[in-house]
Please model this.
Amino acid sequence: MGNWAADVRHQIVAWHPAAMLVVAPAGLALITWATRTIFKGAQGSGIPQTIATLHIENVAVVDRVLSLKTSLGKILLTSFGLICGASIGREGPSVQVGASIMHAFSRLLGQSNIAARRSMILAGGAAGMAAAFNTPLAGIMFAIEELSHSFEQKTSGRTLTVVVLSGVTAIALIGNYTYFGHADVDVPVGTAWIAVLTCGILGGLAGGSFSAILIKASRGIPGRVGQFAATRPIAFAAICGFILALIGLVSKGATYGTGYDQASAIFNGTEHYPASFFVLKYLAMIVSYCSGIPGGMFAPSLAIGAGIGGWVEQFLPHTTPGAVVLLGTVAYFCGMSQSPLTATIIVMEMCDNQQVTLALLATSFLAFGVSKMICPHSLYSCLADRFMEANDRAAHHNPPPSDKKKPAP
Model:
């Protein structure tokens, strides 16, 4: 469905680029209205919601967050957001959808044990990540490093078994393709490792700054803009859509959608984008998130990282251009997510190349350290905390009706 949505958007832009000035504002306003009326709770990435359900003990709340209706809304509204030109990905929603399916399956089996329920949610989230990029190992690592890294209970053998089976099932269903295709590149130890230092520092700075901005925005946009967003969210989403359309016009459509086409072209050397591409894509991601519509951040982050690597490679003649693109991709991805092992494995699987593993690891951990200096807390963990706080406030203001019968007069 994501590919279909991208094709529809391409047709709109090909018909008249300025049409997005109408499509994007109207579309984002409609999506925001739908998340507040028809599909309540479908807004946001999906990963923070999944993390939160691993800590929420109220079964009714978990059932609502991981309901199949919410998952359906996540799929439909994310696809519609891609049509409207939002800079979003499908992997965040895929994680929540996968968790919802496994949660529904555990309920069907009649599992009431909390540990078993959390194991199924964890496995479903991993399967969603594996399916989004066809990277089963990264799905497993994502479950361990990101979804459960702050989970008090240690990951059990049963959980890992279900995660592995989920990843294998995902790759069996969608086929064995690689996101970027096969990359026959290497980064030998020596002068070529200047690229590791350069990309690691730049990616960590950019990714850490992005996370810090989004964490601050999750607490509420300051000033009159924040007041307007809180009181008139649909109108605010329309304004965000108009800004996205303007950014898209300036970039000639390069900032719309997931950024897969641009990242793939940069990696394969068929297109060379200026530094303005990753800057504008960066801004488009922030605006897309602030609008409150459903959508993930992984795929656009890969495009920003590829843009950084594609720009840096021209200054590093001693390193293979394709390798620098991979280093830029893993650096920004890790700087944003602060998950170095997941970032390394996901990029390694995307390019079907184990030769660059050491360089990817070094770049990723360097970016992780730089990002931590700017943003001490993990983006998804902070967003999950905000989600749980919002649920607690809602429960406090709307307590469930008492089951106690009133005494007879």
